[in-house]
Specification:
With 164 residues, this protein is an alpha+beta fold. The chain contains three helices and six strands; from the N terminus they run βαββαβαββ. The chain has a single domain, classed as Cytidine Deaminase, domain 2 (3-Layer(aba) Sandwich), CATH 3.40.140. Helix 2 packs parallel to helix 3.
């Protein structure tokens, strides 16, 4: 049997085409990317996420000479929000990046590990999290749910099974 999964997202040509609130959030992500610590990859990722109480959390990637010890901006932001505001829901996460050695003209999407962490947050709060993705310039993608970015995500139900 062959099964086909589809996903939807919105595509915009420029920041002028998105809402003021989304534009403000992406600008906070851009500002956060400027503060990233990325001396090895020279790839600076910034994230801003809006919470349902009006707060905005920003984060950026933090590299380390021992590469696996670094952490992505998305995971830092989600973990910070969940640890400091556990009763607050994440509404939207805006992601952008810039590079020192080349232009990023396509929307930046989260890595697989970040997608799984974001999916867990979405599952935990039982409400979708919108994702806004953009590069330094060019198109912007907006997804209404993490499920669009990780359609076969791992769920906690997989850990609760018992043998009969």
């Amino acid at each position: 049997m062959k099964i086909k999964y589809n996903f939807e997202f919105e595509e915009y040509e420029s920041l002028d085409q998105i809402s003021d609130a989304d534009r403000q959030l992406i600008h906070k992500a851009i500002d956060s990317a400027d503060k990233a610590y990325a001396p090895y990859s020279k790839y600076f990722v910034g994230v801003a996420l809006s919470l349902d109480d009006g707060r905005v959390v920003t984060a950026n990637n933090q590299e380390n000479a021992a590469y696996p010890s670094g952490l992505c901006a998305e995971r830092i932001a989600v973990f910070y929000a969940n640890s400091n505001f556990p009763d607050t829901k994440i509404e939207t996460i805006a992601i952008t990046a810039k590079a020192e050695n080349f232009d990023i003209s396509e929307p930046v999407t989260p890595c697989g590990a970040c997608r799984q962490v974001m999916a867990e947050a979405e599952n935990r709060q039982q409400e979708s999290i919108r994702v806004i993705m953009m590069g330094e310039k060019g198109k912007i993608y907006i997804s209404e749910s993490i499920a669009n970015l990780l359609p076969l995500m791992f769920h906690a139900e997989g850990l609760k099974k018992q043998k009969h």
